[in-house]
Specification:
Blueprint: E1 21-23, E2 29-33, E3 41-46, H1 60-76, E4 81-88, E5 100-106, E6 123-128, E7 131-135, E8 145-149, H2 162-179, E9 185-190, E10 196-201, H3 208-213, H4 222-231
Antiparallel strand pairs: 1-2, 2-3, 3-5, 4-5, 4-9, 6-7, 7-8, 8-10, 9-10
Helix pairs in contact: 1-2, 2-4
The chain binds zinc ion (2 copies).
């Protein structure tokens, strides 16, 4: 969809469902229900009034507002497990190019979301504000990354470290795009006793081996990916 028709840009608020949250005046971040929900409750968080296409284009203050929106929506609808995710690029499932995240309420926490971060085996890219950006030991795809507090903490949505974590995620996306300008990606929060953000660049489409057998052929080992991301900073 061309930029001059984007319903997420400021001035076209009437083309989205009525919003449930607006931050800033004029608004900087706004939240409204998904027009075509696949789940019982699903919301869209628009990250900027102007047509920014990536988390990489958002500064620290803006990402703090995104974290604030996530927290306020979690507190407003505290039942169930809240899955917060970002898709960038059509190959990664994004239907709009204007940067946004989605909030999906699930009945219970999926098993996949409740694992611990293997800090003793990750490859560190950067450390800031008590948080670490790293490539996990068991990376499924090239340049898979995780942002986590240096020590495990619970309750990601209400943690005062979440704004800095999203800022570090934005930094990670900038590093990725320095290596590969238009890389599609998925990112999400795993909210658990050891909450963290995961970033999954989608440079190659998943195929039968990965999806069917659970075998991921990763051409770039995490140690090498971390080194390249360090240099791209
Ligand atoms: Zn737009
Ligand atoms: Zn995880």
């Amino acid at each position: 969809m061309p930029e001059d028709e984007c319903p997420f840009c400021a001035g076209r608020e009437d083309r989205t469902p009525p919003e449930v949250l607006r931050l800033g005046n004029p608004w900087q971040v706004r939240v409204f229900p998904n027009l075509y929900p696949a789940f019982e409750r699903q919301e869209v968080v628009v990250h900027a009034p102007d047509h920014v296409r990536s988390l990489a284009g958002l500064d620290r203050e803006r990402l703090a507002l995104v974290a604030e929106a996530w927290r306020l929506r979690r507190e407003a609808e505290p039942d169930g497990y809240l899955h917060a995710l970002v898709n960038e690029g059509r190959e990664a499932g994004a239907s709009r190019e204007h940067t946004h995240s989605q909030l999906v309420w699930l009945d219970a926490a999926p098993h996949e979301t409740q694992h611990r971060v293997e800090r003793e085996r990750w490859s560190v890219v950067a450390e800031r504000d008590g948080l670490v950006l790293a490539c996990p030991f068991a990376s499924r795809l090239p340049f898979e990354a995780v942002v986590a507090p240096a020590e495990p903490r619970s309750g990601g949505f209400t943690d005062p470290m979440l704004p800095a974590a999203l800022a570090l995620l934005g930094d990670a996306v900038r590093r990725l795009r320095a290596l590969d300008a238009e890389v599609p990606l998925n990112a999400w929060l795993h909210d658990s006793e050891d909450w963290h953000l995961e970033l999954l660049p989608r440079r190659s489409a998943l195929a039968g081996v990965e999806l069917g057998a659970g075998v991921y052929v990763n051409a770039v080992p995490p140690e090498q990916a971390a080194e390249l991301l360090r240099e791209a900073g």
